[in-house]
Design goal:
about 60% helix; 5-stranded antiparallel beta sheet
Length: about 140
C-alpha cells in the first residue's frame, strides 16, 4: 500500500504544469493563458489575445476567471457560466434593494419578511459563486 502511495505521489510530482494556466495581474488586467480580463465601468471583459476580440462580458470577476480558465482548457462552457453570472447579478441587485428597504422600513413584520428575502437571495448568490468556483478549480 505504501508503494502505491509513493508511486502516485511521484506521478503527481513528475506531471508538468502549464504555467500559462496560472492567473497573474499586470496593468490592471488579469491574464490567464491567451485571455485577458479587464474591469470596465460596469462589467468584466474577457478578451482573447489570439483573435483580439471580447469573448464575454460578466458581472462578477469569478465568472470572468471561470470563462478564461475553461476556454484555455479547450472547454466551451461559456453559456453555463454566463447563466450562473446572471443569477449572481440578479440576486446581488435584489440584496442591495432588500438592504436599503431594511434601513427605511419601520414596520417590524415587513422587516422580518424583507430580512428573509435578503437571506434567500444572498444564499442564491453564494450558491452560484460556489458553482462557478468548480469551473476554476
Amino acid at each position: 500500500m505504501t508503494t502505491d502511495v509513493i508511486k502516485h505521489l511521484s506521478e503527481i510530482m513528475d506531471k508538468q504544469i502549464d504555467p500559462a494556466m496560472f492567473p497573474y495581474e499586470k496593468n490592471n488586467r488579469i491574464n490567464i493563458g491567451s485571455f485577458s480580463i479587464a474591469q470596465t465601468k460596469d462589467c468584466y471583459s474577457v478578451k482573447s489575445y489570439k483573435t483580439n476580440r471580447i469573448v464575454a462580458q460578466t458581472f462578477s470577476k469569478t465568472a470572468a476567471v471561470a470563462i478564461a480558465k475553461s476556454l484555455n482548457k479547450g472547454k466551451n462552457v461559456t453559456k453555463r457560466i454566463l447563466e450562473l453570472d446572471h443569477m449572481i447579478m440578479k440576486h446581488y441587485v435584489d440584496c442591495m434593494f432588500y438592504k436599503n428597504s431594511l434601513k427605511k422600513c419601520k414596520d417590524d413584520i415587513k422587516k422580518d419578511i424583507i430580512g428573509v428575502r435578503y437571506d434567500v437571495s444572498w444564499a442564491k448568490v453564494e450558491d452560484a459563486r460556489k458553482k462557478l468556483e468548480h469551473f476554476i478549480f
